[in-house]
C-alpha cells in the first residue's frame, strides 16, 4: 500500500505543478559597491533601464553590463505609468561604476496614501513558465521613513510587501528583488504605493534577468580590448540557496568559434593566456560542472554561442638609444641613434682584451670586479609617467650575482629600473634573471629563470601602455608586474654595474655590484616591444637550449631541454651523460631521440658530479653541440610539526655532529636539556665547535611558544636581522664527505602566515633556492625544518636570504645528525584521533618508500608519553608488515605508540611518538536541562540545578510558549527576545572535563544565536553569524579557550525542527552532530571553559558590545527552541540517535504528525522553487529529490 501511495504522490505532484506557476518572493539587501550590486556580465538580462539619462544611449552599470538609457519612461518591452516628477543630481555612499545608477530619478505618487492610482512598471514579452528576478536599484534619501507598499500582479504573488527605501540609512544603497515565474500572459506589473504623503519611491534603475542557479563572473567582458597576455576569469557563482560542492571548469578558446582549443578539468575559475596575437578577436566558452553534473554553459543549446574579446594593436617599438659595443679599442662606447656615447670604466685593457668577439661584431668583457659602462645623464629616456618603453640586450655569464643594466636617482635613491642576475638589492636568487623597479616608495620585482649557463642569452624588459611590465628571456615570458605607468627620473645610468651601490658601498658585497660576463647590443626603446621584434633578436642566437635540471637535482632524474630556435623539422637529439667535464667516459645517454627529454637509465650516486650534453642532428649531420652542463645529487627540505618532546624528533639514539641552542640570555657553552635524554650546547657569540653563524646582528629573549616539555628550551630565544647587504650564513665543518646527514632547524612562527618568507640556499645546491615561510604554522606554533643531504665535502653552508630584510629569519636552534637508513612515519590512527575501544589497527610507512623492504619492526603502545606504562611491547618479535592490530584497548584512554625499524637484529630507526584516544562507552548523564515545558509565565525552569532563566523583552510571554518537540517550546521574535540565564558560573567546565550540549530548534532566520555561554571562555551555537564571520543559514559551533575553534555545519534555516549535539571528550575532541549525522570536528586539547553568564536566543556579550553597531536581527534568533541540555560525559551514538529520532519525519512538511496529501500539496505548490518547506534538501529548488524524501516517509 505504501508503494502505491508513493506512486500516487509522484503523479499528483506532476499534475499540480503543471497547474501552478510558482510563488513570487520579495527580498531586500544592502548595496555598497560593484562587488555586491548583483550586476554581472554572466547573467542574461531581458529588460533594463537607467532613468533620467540620455534617451536610448547605453548606460554603463558596472561589471561589464550596460543598461538601456531612458528619459521617457518606456523602452524595449517595458513601460512606466503614473510617475509624474523628476529629480536630477545627487550622490550616494555606493562605490564603483554602478554608483552612477543612483544619480537622478523619477518619483511621485498621484494617488497618495489613500488613492487607487500609483506608479506602475509593466514588463512585457516574458516567456511563460520561465523564472526571472527583477531588481530595483535604490538608495536611502533620509535616515528612515520612506515606507512603500510594493506588489506584483503575477498569480503567485505574495501580496503587499512593505519596504522602507531608507532601510539602510541616507545615501546607502539598497537592492529590492522580486523572484518569480512568469505567468501565462507573458507580462508582470509592479505597483509602488506610498504610505505617507510626499514619501514616494525614488526610481533610479531596474533590471530583469533570467534566473540561473549558477552563473559565471567573467572577465574580460564582451567587447573588451586586452593586452596580449590575458587572464580569463570565469568563477562560478551560486544563486542564493544554491550550494556548489566542488565545481570544475571546461574552457574552450581560440580565434575560430567553430574550432576552439579545450582546457578541461580546471579546478579554479581562472586561466592565463600568454603571447596572443595582436589585433585579433578571440572567442571563448565555459562549461561548469559540480559533482559531475553540468550546472552552467556559455552555449547550452550548442548554437556556437561564444564570448569575445579583442587584443590591442601595438605599434612597433622604436630605438631611442643603442649601444652596439662593436669597438675594438679605447674607452668610448658609441651610442648609434643620437650620439649620447657611454664611457668604459675600470677595464684593465680597453685597447685589447676588454673588447672581444660578441654575438654581433664585438662586445665588452666585464670583469665583475670594477669594470662597467657609464651612460652619463644627458640622454633623454622614455621613462616618463604614462609612457611605454623597453630595454633589451644580450648577456653571457656564469656569475651568480651582478647587474646587467641599472638606472637610479642620485638624490633620493627612490626611482629604480634595473635588470640583474641573482641579487637585486633586496633579495638573493642566485643565477636567475631579475627585474626590480621602485617609484614613490613602491617596490616591484620579477624573478625570472636561470641565466648563468655561459651561453648567449637575450633579455627584454617591456612596459606596455597599460603599465604591465613584462620580463622576457630568450623570447619567453618570465613574469609580469604592473607599475601603474610610474615615472622614473634617473641620472645614474650604467651597464655591468650599479652606480648607487658602488657609491654607497652596498647593499650586498662588492662582488654583487659588478657583473662578470659579456654584454652586447643594449638598446633602449620608445614603446613596447612586440613579440615579433623580440623573436627577431632571439633569432640572432644560432641555437638556444635551456636545460633542466640546470645544475642540481634529486633522485629519479629526467633531463629536459628546449628545441633550439630554428631547428629543422625532423631533427633528432643525442644525449650524453658522464662523470667528467670532457665526457670522455659516457655512463648513460641515447641517440635518435625525437622528444626533448631523456630519463636516466642509470641511478646517480650522491657525492658524484655528473655532466651532460645534447647534440642536434639533421639527417646524418650534427648541426649543433650544446655546452656541457653539470648536475649532482643534492639534498631536500621537509617540514614537520613540533608541539612537544614527543614530536621534537630529538633522540638519544641518534648520532649528532652538531647540537646548538641560540640562547643569548644564557651562558655560552652551557648545556641545555633539550628533552629525550639529549642536551644542546648553548651559544651567545654565534660560533662554536665546528660551526659558525655570520651576519645576524640582533637577538631576542623571552619567547613563549606553545611547545610542551624540555624541548621548549630550544624556542625561547633567537638571533635575527641581517648585516647590511649580507645574508646570514650558517657554516658546519668537520663533516665526513659522502656521509648522509640531516640538519634540523628548530623554529616557531612569529606573526601571521606569509610575512616571513626566506630563500634558503644549501651549500650542496648553490644555484637553487628553497622558499620557506617561517610563519607558515599558526602564530607561535613550533615546527621543524629538515634538510637531508650527502656531504659534498667536510663543510656545509646554509644561506638565509630574507625576501624582506625587515622580516628576517629567526635562528632558534639547530642540530646535525647522521641520517638513518630509512625513517618511519606513523599513518593511522592520525595524531590525536579518536577511535573506538577494543581492536585498533596501527599502520605506518617507510621514508623513502621501499627503503625498509628488508626491515622488521618493533611495536610499543603505552599509556604515557615516555612509553614506560606499556600495554603492548613487541620488542622481541620481528613484525614483518607495516600494520598491526592491537587487541582489547580500554575505553576513554589516551594511548602513545612508537615503531622501531630493525635491519637484522639491530634497531636502526625509531618513529616519533604518536598518540590517539579511545572513545568512552559510558552513557552521558544530564547535568542541567531546560525542557521549555513551562507553558506560561516569564520563567524557563531548569530541572536539575535550579538554574532558571528569565524571559526578556517578550511582548506577551504567554503567547511565546508554542508547541515544541515535547510538550511546549519557546518562540523568539528575532528582534529583542531572549532568555537570560543569569550567573551560570557553576557550569564552568574544568580542563579535561568531558561534556556534551544538545537541543532542538527550528528557524528560517539566516543569522542568530541559539545558546551562548560567556565570558571569559566561549561555548556557543549559532545560526549563520558566529561573531567573527558569517555563513548564512548554516549551523555554527564556536569555542574559545586558549585559542578560537569553530565547526560549520549544514543549512538549518528551512523552518523545520532540527537537533544539535556537541560532544567534548576529556582529551579535547569536539564533534558536532546535526539531526544525528556527524557534521564536523575540532580539537581544544581538553581546555577549561570558565563562564559567568548565558542566554538563549542571543549572546549577552554581543548585546553589551555590539547593540549600536550590528542590526538587532543579527544579535537575536527568530525561531523556536526546545529541550536545551548540558550533559556530563560524551553522548554515545545510541543516545544521539535516540534524541534525533524525536524529530518529525522530513516529509512531514506541515508538521501535523502525518506525512500525507497535505504535505504533497505543499511540495506541489513550491515545485521548482526554493520555497521552504517544499525544498526539503535545501538544494535551491523543490524537485524530484524532495519528492523521493516525501515518498520514503509517506504514511509515517
Report on this model:
This protein is mainly β and 1196 residues long. The protein has 8 domains: 76 residues, Dockerin domain (Type 1 dockerin domain), CATH 1.10.1330.10; 179 residues, Jelly Rolls, CATH 2.60.120.430; 98 residues, Immunoglobulin-like (Sandwich), CATH 2.60.40; 221 residues, Jelly Rolls (Sandwich), CATH 2.60.120; 82 residues, Sandwich (Immunoglobulin-like); 178 residues, Jelly Rolls (Sandwich), CATH 2.60.120.430; 95 residues, Immunoglobulins (Immunoglobulin-like, Sandwich); 216 residues, Jelly Rolls (Sandwich). Helices cover 6% and strands 45% of the residues. The strands form 16 sheets. Strands 25, 28, 29, 31, 36, 37, 38 and 40 form an 8-stranded antiparallel sheet that branches. Strands 26-27-30-39-32-33-34-35 form an 8-stranded antiparallel sheet, with no helix packed on it. Strand 43 and strand 44 form a beta hairpin. Helix 1 packs parallel to helix 8 and helix 1 packs antiparallel against helix 9. The longest helix is centred in the first third of the chain and has 17 residues. The N terminus is likely disordered.
Short description:
The chain has nine helices and 88 strands. Helix 1 runs parallel beside helix 8 and helix 1 packs antiparallel against helix 9.
Alpha-beta content class: mainly beta
Largest sheet: 8 strands, antiparallel
What's the CATH class label of the largest domain?
A: Mainly Beta
Strand content: over 45%
Rg, alpha carbons: 37 Å
The protein's oligomeric status is single chain
The average pLDDT value, as a whole number, equals 88
* CA(first)-CA(last) distance: 13 Å
Number-wise, the strands total 88
In DSSP terms (H or I, runs of 4 or more residues), the helix count works out at 9
Task: Please name the CATH topology of the largest domain.
Answer: Jelly Rolls
| Level-2 CATH architecture of the largest domain | Sandwich
Helix percentage: under 10%
In total, the number of domains comes to 8
General shape: globular
Report low-confidence residues grouped into runs of 5 or more: 1-22
Amino acid at each position: 500500500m505504501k508503494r502505491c501511495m508513493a506512486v500516487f504522490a509522484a503523479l499528483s505532484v506532476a499534475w499540480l505543478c503543471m497547474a501552478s506557476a510558482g510563488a513570487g518572493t520579495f527580498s531586500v539587501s544592502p548595496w555598497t559597491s560593484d562587488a555586491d550590486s548583483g550586476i554581472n556580465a554572466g547573467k542574461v538580462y531581458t529588460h533594463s533601464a537607467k532613468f533620467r539619462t540620455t534617451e536610448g544611449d547605453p548606460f554603463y552599470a558596472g561589471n561589464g553590463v550596460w543598461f538601456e538609457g531612458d528619459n521617457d519612461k518606456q523602452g524595449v518591452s517595458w513601460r512606466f505609468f503614473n510617475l509624474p516628477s523628476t529629480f536630477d543630481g545627487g550622490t550616494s555612499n555606493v562605490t564603483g561604476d554602478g554608483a552612477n545608477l543612483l544619480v537622478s530619478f523619477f518619483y511621485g505618487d498621484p494617488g497618495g496614501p489613500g488613492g487607487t492610482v500609483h506608479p506602475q512598471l509593466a514588463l512585457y514579452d516574458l516567456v511563460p513558465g520561465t523564472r526571472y528576478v527583477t531588481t530595483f536599484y535604490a538608495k536611502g534619501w533620509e535616515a528612515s521613513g520612506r515606507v512603500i507598499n510594493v506588489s506584483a500582479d503575477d498569480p503567485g504573488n505574495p501580496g503587499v510587501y512593505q519596504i522602507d527605501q531608507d532601510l539602510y540609512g541616507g545615501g546607502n544603497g539598497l537592492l529590492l528583488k522580486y523572484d518569480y515565474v512568469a505567468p501565462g500572459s507573458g507580462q508582470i506589473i509592479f505597483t509602488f504605493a506610498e504610505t505617507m504623503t510626499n514619501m514616494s519611491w525614488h526610481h533610479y534603475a531596474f533590471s530583469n534577468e533570467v534566473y540561473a542557479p549558477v552563473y559565471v563572473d567573467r572577465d574580460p567582458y564582451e567587447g573588451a580590448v586586452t593586452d596580449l597576455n590575458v587572464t580569463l576569469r570565469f568563477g562560478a557563482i551560486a544563486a542564493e540557496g544554491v550550494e556548489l560542492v566542488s565545481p570544475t571548469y571546461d574552457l574552450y578558446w581560440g580565434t575560430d568559434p567553430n574550432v576552439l582549443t579545450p582546457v578541461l578539468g580546471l579546478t579554479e575559475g581562472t586561466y592565463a593566456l600568454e603571447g596572443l596575437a595582436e589585433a585579433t578577436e578571440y572567442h571563448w566558452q565555459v562549461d561548469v560542472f559540480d559533482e559531475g553534473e553540468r550546472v552552467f554553459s556559455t552555449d547550452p543549446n550548442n548554437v556556437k554561442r561564444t564570448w569575445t574579446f579583442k587584443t590591442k594593436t601595438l605599434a612597433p617599438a622604436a630605438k631611442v638609444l643603442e649601444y652596439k659595443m662593436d669597438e675594438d679599442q679605447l674607452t668610448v662606447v658609441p651610442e648609434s641613434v643620437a650620439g649620447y656615447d657611454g664611457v668604459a670604466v675600470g677595464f684593465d685593457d680597453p685597447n685589447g682584451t676588454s673588447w672581444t668577439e660578441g654575438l654581433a661584431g664585438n662586445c665588452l668583457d666585464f670583469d665583475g670586479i670594477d669594470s662597467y659602462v657609464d651612460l652619463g645623464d644627458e640622454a633623454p629616456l622614455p621613462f616618463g609617467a604614462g609612457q611605454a618603453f623597453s630595454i633589451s640586450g644580450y648577456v653571457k655569464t656564469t656569475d651568480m650575482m651582478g647587474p646587467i643594466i641599472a638606472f637610479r636617482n642620485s638624490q633620493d635613491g627612490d626611482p629604480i629600473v634595473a635588470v640583474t642576475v641573482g641579487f637585486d638589492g633586496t633579495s638573493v636568487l642566485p643565477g636567475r634573471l631579475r627585474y626590480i623597479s621602485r617609484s614613490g616608495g613602491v617596490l616591484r620585482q620579477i624573478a625570472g629563470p636561470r641565466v648563468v649557463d655561459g651561453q648567449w642569452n637575450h633579455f627584454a624588459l617591456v612596459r606596455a601602455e597599460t603599465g604591465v611590465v613584462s620580463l622576457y628571456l630568450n623570447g619567453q615570458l618570465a613574469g609580469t608586474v604592473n607599475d601603474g605607468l610610474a615615472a622614473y627620473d634617473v641620472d645614474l645610468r650604467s651597464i655591468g654595474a650599479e652606480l648607487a651601490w658602488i657609491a654607497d658601498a652596498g647593499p650586498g658585497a662588492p662582488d654583487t655590484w659588478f657583473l662578470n660576463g659579456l654584454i652586447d647590443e643594449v638598446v633602449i626603446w620608445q614603446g613596447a616591444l612586440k613579440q615579433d621584434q623580440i623573436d627577431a633578436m632571439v633569432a640572432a642566437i644560432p641555437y638556444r637550449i635551456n636545460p633542466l635540471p640546470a645544475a642540481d637535482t634529486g633522485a629519479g632524474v629526467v633531463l629536459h631541454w628546449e628545441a633550439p630556435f630554428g631547428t629543422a623539422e625532423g631533427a633528432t637529439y643525442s644525449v650524453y651523460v658522464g662523470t667528467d667535464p670532457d665526457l670522455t667516459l659516457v655512463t648513460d645517454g641515447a641517440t635518435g631521440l625525437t622528444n626533448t627529454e631523456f630519463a636516466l637509465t642509470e641511478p646517480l650516486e650522491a657525492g658524484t658530479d655528473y655532466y651532460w650534453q645534447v647534440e642536434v642532428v639533421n639527417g646524418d649531420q650534427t648541426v649543433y653541440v650544446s655546452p656541457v652542463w653539470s648536475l649532482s645529487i643534492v639534498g631536500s627540505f621537509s617540514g614537520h610539526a613540533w608541539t612537544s618532546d614527543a614530536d621534537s624528533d630529538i633522540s638519544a639514539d641518534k648520532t649528532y655532529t652538531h647540537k646548538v641552542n641560540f640562547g643569548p640570555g644564557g651562558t655560552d657553552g652551557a648545556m641545555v636539556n633539550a628533552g629525550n635524554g639529549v642536551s644542546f650546547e648553548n651559544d651567545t657569540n654565534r660560533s662554536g665547535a665546528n660551526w659558525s653563524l655570520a651576519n645576524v646582528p640582533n637577538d631576542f629573549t623571552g619567547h613563549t611558544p606553545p611547545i610542551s616539555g624540555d624541548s621548549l628550551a630550544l624556542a625561547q630565544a633567537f638571533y635575527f636581522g641581517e648585516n647590511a647587504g649580507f645574508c646570514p650564513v650558517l657554516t658546519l665543518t668537520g663533516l665526513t664527505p659522502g656521509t648522509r646527514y640531516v640538519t634540523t632547524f628548530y623554529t616557531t612562527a612569529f606573526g601571521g602566515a606569509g610575512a616571513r618568507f626566506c630563500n634558503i640556499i644549501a651549500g650542496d645546491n648553490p644555484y637553487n633556492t628553497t622558499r620557506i615561510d617561517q610563519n607558515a604554522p599558526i602564530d607561535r606554533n613550533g615546527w621543524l625544518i629538515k634538510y637531508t643531504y650527502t656531504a659534498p665535502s667536510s663543510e656545509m653552508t646554509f644561506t638565509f636570504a630574507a625576501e624582506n630584510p625587515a622580516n628576517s629569519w629567526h635562528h632558534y636552534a639547530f642540530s646535525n645528525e647522521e641520517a638513518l637508513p630509512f625513517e618511519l612515519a606513523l599513518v593511522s590512527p592520525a595524531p590525536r584521533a579518536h577511535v573506538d575501544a577494543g581492536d585498533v589497527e596501527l599502520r605506518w610507512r617507510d621514508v623513502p618508500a621501499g627503503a625498509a623492504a628488508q626491515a622488521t619492526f618493533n611495536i610499543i603502545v603505552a599509556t604515557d608519553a615516555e612509553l614506560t606504562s606499556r600495554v603492548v611491547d613487541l620488542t622481541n618479535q620481528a613484525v614483518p608488515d607495516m600494520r598491526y592490530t592491537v587487541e582489547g584497548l580500554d575505553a576513554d584512554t589516551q594511548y602513545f605508540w612508537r615503531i622501531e625499524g630493525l635491519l637484522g637484529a639491530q634497531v636502526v630507526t625509531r618513529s616519533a611518538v604518536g598518540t590517539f584516544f579511545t572513545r568512552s562507552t559510558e552513557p552521558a548523564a544530564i547535568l542541567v536541562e531546560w525542557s521549555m515545558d513551562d507553558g506560561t509565565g516569564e520563567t524557563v525552569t531548569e530541572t536539575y540545578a535550579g538554574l532558571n532563566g528569565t524571559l526578556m523583552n517578550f511582548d506577551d510571554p504567554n503567547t511565546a510558549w508554542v508547541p515544541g518537540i515535547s510538550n511546549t517550546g519557546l518562540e523568539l521574535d528575532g528582534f529583542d527576545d531572549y532568555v537570560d540565564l543569569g550567573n551560570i558560573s557553576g557550569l564552568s567546565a574544568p580542563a579535561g572535563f568531558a561534556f556534551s550540549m544538545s537541543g532542538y530548534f527550528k528557524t528560517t532566520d539566516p543569522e542568530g544565536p541559539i545558546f551562548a555561554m560567556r565570558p571569559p571562555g566561549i561555548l556557543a551555537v549559532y545560526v549563520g553569524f558566529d561573531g567573527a564571520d558569517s555563513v548564512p543559514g548554516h549551523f555554527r559551533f564556536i569555542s574559545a579557550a586558549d585559542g578560537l575553534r569553530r565547526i560549520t555545519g549544514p543549512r538549518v534555516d528551512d523552518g523545520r525542527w532540527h537537533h544539535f549535539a556537541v560532544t567534548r571528550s576529556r582529551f579535547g575532541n569536539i564533534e558536532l552532530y546535526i539531526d544525528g549525522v556527524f557534521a564536523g570536528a575540532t580539537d581544544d586539547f581538553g581546555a577549561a571553559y570558565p563562564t559567568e553568564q548565558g542566554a538563549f536566543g542571543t549572546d549577552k556579550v554581543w548585546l553589551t558590545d555590539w547593540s549600536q553597531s550590528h542590526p538587532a536581527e543579527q544579535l537575536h534568533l527568530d525561531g523556536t527552541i526546545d529541550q536545551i541540555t548540558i550533559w556530563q560525559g560524551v553522548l554515545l551514538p545510541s543516545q544521539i540517535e535516540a534524541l534525533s529520532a524525536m524529530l518529525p519525519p522530513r516529509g512531514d512538511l506541515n508538521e501535523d504528525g502525518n506525512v500525507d496529501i497535505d504535505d504533497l500539496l505543499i511540495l506541489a505548490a513550491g515545485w521548482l522553487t526554493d520555497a521552504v518547506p517544499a525544498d526539503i534538501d535545501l538544494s535551491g529548488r523543490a524537485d524530484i529529490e524532495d519528492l523521493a524524501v516525501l515518498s520514503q516517509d509517506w504514511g509515517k
